[in-house]
Amino acid sequence: MAPDTRPDASRSGARQASGAGPGARRPGPAATGFVLPDDVAAVAGLYAEPSGPGTKSPEDEGPESSVRFYRPLVYRLPGEPGPTGPVDLLLCFPYDLAPLTGGRAYGDAQVGIDFGDSGAQALAVQPAPGSVQPDGTRVAVFGRGHHRLRWEFRPPSAGLRPDGHWCQVLLRLPPGRSGVYCHLSCHVVVRRTLLGRAVGSKAGTRGDFGLRVNVEDAWAARLPLPGLPYPMAAPDSPAPRVRGPEGGHEEGAAGDAPWLRRLFFALDVERYSRRHNTHMARVQRDLWRTARAACAHASVDWHACGRQVSGDGYLLVLPTGISEPAAVAGLLQGVTLALHAVNTDPERPAGIGPTRMRASLHQGLTCEGASGFLGTAVVELFRVLDAGPLRAALRESAHADLAVAWSDSLYRDLVPHAYPGLDERAFRQVQVDLPEKGFTAGAWIELRARPLGGERPAPAGTEAPHAGNGAPNPH
């Protein structure tokens, strides 16, 4: 996704975030010197708007407040293979309003997203028209079925909370489109008490802010997608079906796609579904930034990776031709440092709690279909990721935000050979038994300790609990 560099992109008066390109970074905590990808697309002032004769024009005074637009999360849904079919994208636009002071509060708010003359069509939107959010805010939406959308949020008397907002669009692009430009705008009512009376004044962005969403940046996904704050139904057009890896059928797979041996790395957020929508929006950003930062830290080409959304996490299928020991060690170190950075971010909202993750590593044959990656190795990867031993290891750890399960085959290929960043003393062997699925597999669990001061993160092997019927590594 790239900022809109066309002439009309300057209409907004928005300040594009420093280094706002997809690979840009901003400093992380001073303790580690680690940096994270910057997911802020722009910070735009909300300027007073004329409300009648004699009212100052927006040019005569500074902004009342500001809105921060974050880079949208982009998911590609199954569709017709080849260039002749439309492209269905699920776009998730997070944004925050700046906190108000002096007894002021936000009243009604509007967010506009305009996809211009691209031929794009909004199939569904969330929050849905007529819905009521948990805090009592009522939502109205205009433009479904068209290219220009507007959400209106009408909060109760307490006012609209400033942070953790999120708009979702299920967008259909015409065949052959590699992306779409969109323009965002925001308008609010600021409430205050004046001479004992409640009054409201309007403020908004000057014009809009433009950016481009590229199809190549999308994660493969299927609806319903449980990792999002708002559920969405799949589009009407069904995807083709072919035979899957376990005798069933997989949606959207290409029947002639090659089966290749690849290395898999999966991440999943602990206790994600127990969070409310506002915090889900922030944790989704944490997940994206962590995965992106880990790839950069490991010198793994982000765009060369296969990427797929699964539940509350992500699957990365690493490219061929890389040094596997260096890539795996770098990814795990990168995730550890990135989690430390997001959890110690001074702008992290109060009450959200730390973001902690489980990870699993495996290798095997896979085939890329229109709806994601197929193969028994992928199935095994996620069964180990979701199983009790790994969940218990993270839950019972007081010193780590990342618990990792390695498949037995990958462990034996990499860990005992003293590659840098991999220490076999940190591992415990466990048995994963899922009788209801007829699945049994050996795995190796390690905990990655949080970095202390400026130190590099190291495996937290000495504190790993005995999960399942695990036994310490005798070596």
Descriptive overview:
It is a single chain. This protein has 475 residues and is mainly β. The chain has two domains: 2-215, Sandwich (Immunoglobulin-like); 252-472, Nucleotide cyclase, GGDEF domain (Alpha-Beta Plaits), CATH 3.30.70.1230. Helices cover 14% and strands 39% of the residues. It is built from five helices and 28 strands. The protein has helices at residues 277-297, 324-343, 376-386, 388-395, 408-414, and strands at residues 2-3, 14-16, 25-27, 35-37, 40-48, 63-70, 73-76, 87-97, 105-114, 121-126, 138-142, 148-154, 165-173, 179-194, 197-204, 209-214, 219-220, 241-243, 249-251, 259-269, 306-310, 313-317, 357-369, 372-374, 400-407, 428-434, 439-449, 471-472. The strands form four sheets. The chain has a 15-stranded mixed sheet that branches. Strands 20, 21, 22, 23, 24, 25, 26, 27 and 28 form a nine-stranded mixed sheet that branches. Strand 26 and strand 27 (439-449) form a beta hairpin. Helix 1 runs antiparallel to helix 2 (324-343). The relative contact order is 0.12.
Q: Key features?
A:
mainly beta, 475 residues, nine-stranded mixed β-sheet, 15-stranded mixed β-sheet, disordered N terminus, Alpha-Beta Plaits, 5 helices, Immunoglobulin-like
